[in-house]
Prior knowledge:
By secondary structure, the chain is of the alpha/beta class. The protein contains seven helices and eight strands, in the order βαβαβαβααββαβαβ. Helix 3 links the parallel strand 3 and strand 4. Helix 6 (171-182) packs across helix 7. It starts with a strand and ends in a 5-residue tail after the last strand.
Amino acid sequence: xxxxxxxxxxxxxxxxxxxxxxxxxxxxxxxxxxxxxxxxxxxxxxxxxxxxxxxxxxxxxxxxxxxxxxxxxxxxxxxxxxxxxxxxxxxxxxxxxxxxxxxxxxxxxxxxxxxxxxxxxxxxxxxxxxxxxxxxxxxxxxxxxxxxxxxxxxxxxxxxxxxxxxxxxxxxxxxxxxxxxxxxxxxxxxxxxxxxxxxxxxxxxxxxxxxxxxxxxxxx
Length: 220
């Protein structure tokens, strides 16, 4: 029987992190910079470890104004991201890595791979990323990730958030997409920065289990 991981983004200053930790098997904890804080990151990680969840370091461009979701950041924002990664990730001691927002999409399309390679060489743990993307060319294992609540382009990339319909909200559509993706990836991601994410997480987990999947964290 196939297993599947369910990962959620937390540590971003939202009020429902503890609820999501009851549903997910892995948590991508914001290390600060685009949201959250360093102290909050480490506090959240302690709670996640107590709950026997896999802990991931979630890092992105230093851009709180745009929640790290705007490409082509300034040089200082990039330098700040790299400095934060090298300062916070060792203290977090993550099971895996996961880029966030624009940095995730940029590296998937082949941009900023030099930065991602530097981070991955420094921290040789698995990374969550898109299948068949440029992220596969960086060193270390890649855990293939599918998104429960994001629309896809024909080439397997994510529809830009600026396009209407890029973020899925219909529970039936989310459920169908999750079941379709689960057989093709190692982990399903659900965003945790919007109202209704807990309800959607419950729907996603129930859909996976009803389809015969064992929901458990990825094996390192």
